[in-house]
Amino acid sequence: TLLSKPGCHLCDDARAVITRVAADLGVPWDERDITQSEQDLAEYWDKIPVTMVDGVTHDFWRVSEDRLRAALSR
């Protein structure tokens, strides 16, 4: 899951990495706009983009393609 918000250039970068890795590995992913939830906004506003794997925070600010690939390959 990618936690993002509109107009976030780092989110655009993260989305590109996640799209590429997920396509390569054949795994589904989704994106959640933190501005749609007061709880998400309060918890993540200063950390986005946040990448979560199986509901657990994996990376924030920048997405490491190698780390993401390794986490999704387990």
Number of helices: 3
Work out the helicity level. 40-55%
Shape: globular
The biggest beta sheet is recorded as: 4 strands, mixed
* Low-pLDDT stretches: none
Distance between the termini: 16 Å
Taking all residues together, what is the mean pLDDT? 96
Oligomer: single chain
Structural class: alpha+beta
What's a quick, concise take on this entry?
The protein is α+β, with helices and mostly antiparallel strands and 74 residues long. It has helices spanning 9-25, 38-44, 65-72; strands spanning 2-4, 31-33, 50-53, 56-60.
Main traits of this protein?
single chain, 74 residues, alpha+beta, 20% strand
Detailed description of the structure:
The protein is of the alpha+beta class and 74 residues long. It has three helices and four strands; from the N terminus they run E-H-E-H-E-E-H. The protein is 43% helix and 20% strand. A hairpin with a 2-residue loop joins strand 3 (50-53) and strand 4. The two termini are 16 Å apart. The mean pLDDT is 96.
Secondary structure topology:
Layout: E1 2-4, H1 9-25, E2 31-33, H2 38-44, E3 50-53, E4 56-60, H3 65-72
Parallel strand pairs: 1-2
Antiparallel strand pairs: 1-3, 3-4
